[in-house]
Amino acid sequence: MKPNFIQKVTNWGNFPVVEKEIKSEDSIERIKDFVRNNNEVIARGNGRCYGDASLSEHIFSTRRLNKFISFDRLNGVIECESGVLLSHVLEVIVPQGYFLYVTPGTKFITVGGAIASDVHGKNHHAEGCFSEYVEEFSLLNENSEVITCSRTENEDKFWATIGGMGLTGIILSAKFKLKNIETAYIRQESVKAQNLDEIFKLFDESESWTYNVAWIDCLQRGKNIGRSIMMRGEHAFKHELPKKMQENPLRLKKKMIPKIPFYFPDFLLNKFTVKLFNFLYFNKQQQKMVKNYVDYETFFYPLDVVNDWNKIYGKSGFIQYQMVIPKEKGKEGMEKILQTIAKSGNGSFLAVLKLFGKNNPHAYNSFPTEGYTLALDFKVNSRLKKLVTDLDEIVEEYGGRIYLTKDSMSKSTLTNYLQNVQNPKFVSMQHKRIMNSNN
Amino acid sequence: MIVLGSNSEIAQAFVEKVLEAGEKYQTVFLFTSNRETTQKFAQHIDVKFFQQTEIIELDLMKEIDYNKFDDITSDLLFCATGYLGEGTDEALYNNKNTEKVIDINFAKLVPVLNFFAAKMERQRSGTMIVLSSVAGDRGRQSNFIYGSAKAGLTAYLSGLRNYMFSRKVHVLTVKPGFMDTKMTEGLPLNPALTATPRQAAEEIYTAYKRKKNTAYVLPLWSIIMLIIKNIPEFIFKKLKL
Ligand SMILES: Cc1cc2nc3c(=O)[nH]c(=O)nc-3n(C[C@H](O)[C@H](O)[C@H](O)COP(=O)(O)OP(=O)(O)OC[C@H]3O[C@@H](n4cnc5c(N)ncnc54)[C@H](O)[C@@H]3O)c2cc1C
Fold first, then answer.
1. What is the pLDDT of residue B167?
2. What ipTM does this complex have?
3. H or E stretch at A379
4. A179 alpha carbon to ligand 1 midpoint, in Å?
5. Is the peptide bond before A368 cis (omega within 30 degrees of 0)?
6. Of A118, A346, B6, B136, whose CB neighbour count within 10 A is largest?
């Protein structure tokens, strides 16, 4: 049996699917050789980007770069290899009274993926992106050298790599700061909004909350457009928790995670079922406002409670469309977008609205800019390309842009914002697609 | 805990499993032929579990100074040393390869296992968990040098278990089938028959707690090997396995 590294690979949206070389190593020397001997290499973490960002001719999987390196328990600074999952970081730090400053809506992503996409959470308006808390990382660059990058050492590479989508090299390890917590629980308020006016007002009123997010029912039309539930939260202090939670406030019970065993048949997810889901979701909550305490997993990672949930979209896969529209015109733009979706009949199970705060001007490749951001899941079908084109038009009109880590078919003028990343060594299918359609 | 072959992904997953289960050891002794990569693992479990470790160099292909191991004792030994070498097609008549495969998997390993077995015999307690292989269950044309060395190891372990029974030491023989590790990366393995190091660690841990004598990592393998072992020789010799 001779090794053959060609495999079927696809990311979270199961679209596109390609057959490419995928290799994983933990020896730096062998990783260097791999980079030296190949062009068109891209790093891949846990494949939680949706489209073609971590696909290329030669994929280097970081799954074997999975070791912790150090943990300064006094000052809350942790260092690990780039393939360590945020879920594993949390397992180590939460019982010690620490949390991630910034976490996306799933904990099953790697530290390398968090830097390369410069991920944001529900707290962008208050605490910015993941990169704000990164002290340094080591990068294997196009010359197969390992360099340390920080705000003072190789700064140009440091900032180009943040949000650079793997195009500057392979991040091998990283050191980042953690936030103090007293408990593993969140004080949460969920507030219902009947329409866009209400939800935008809620965002304004909630600006002093650390975490804010709204789930939108995007099949509503007319006066109900923008019907949603806003969830805001703060890390709970021990004394405010109900008695039962106070006993062991930093430890959660292990939960069983159910798994979707196979791809759902295509007919299962349609306009009707999405409507039903949104109806149930919205009406689950009777009162206008509910206040409670939930553990951090329930608050931050509601989607992680089912493994492989991406299979409900069937074999043809799905995309996530996430854009940002500058704040001043945010409401107007969102209204147009929601109208277009409702008209298209392409329902989105999951539509999440957030408010981004000011961007970090140093992190020029990072996606977030001040404004409203909406993320929507769409099943891949024959009408989708048209919908994406229509939505792209609106985003362009309002001067917004698309989140590269979710993109697989958007217009190149909305997705070509990366700077200082061009080299023939590190190339992704996404970058090629964008660059080719540019000229 | 004593770990032989600390760079093995299965050994590392097992150490993590045991520590996750809440077991504490004064020191985990990590025997390895590659100090640098084992150092990474040692730091890793220090961060994750606050566990003290000691790295000890052991290269089975070199002279071993047993005096250095005098103070090392534990109730649990996990051995994952192994060497696949080249298969039949590439290297049947390559004596260097043959010797190395037999030395690492059997000839040079058994004295080391005996050394720690003697300590457990004196203690009258302990468990030795040793990875052998399904390849040792019956010699097949594709890799019978490796298979025969593992067959030798399996026979040694079964004898040792028998000898140690009255001396209160338990011996667990583990026979992993296909594993999803560095060793097999890129090989066209059937996912249903291939276990991850993590899965292997879970199975081995359960077998250890239940005081099993032998364990296949995926239960399916016990059935497959039962069939393979029972194919009559006059048919077996004609098969391309
Ligand atoms: C359910 C769900 C919810 C999500 N919620 C959010 C959210 O709230 N906010 C948000 O910002 N994102 C969110 N995401 C997107 C996700 O956080 C990013 O796509 C993240 O980058 C995925 O990390 P990964 O480790 O899986 O990397 P991959 O998906 O494998 O790769 C993503 C990008 O990072 C690069 N990369 C990965 N590892 C390295 C490395 N070691 N060195 C260099 N480049 C590397 C790849 O080349 C690629 O360009 C969500 C995704 C899912 C599935």
1. 97
2. 0.91
3. strand A371-379
4. 21
5. no
6. B6
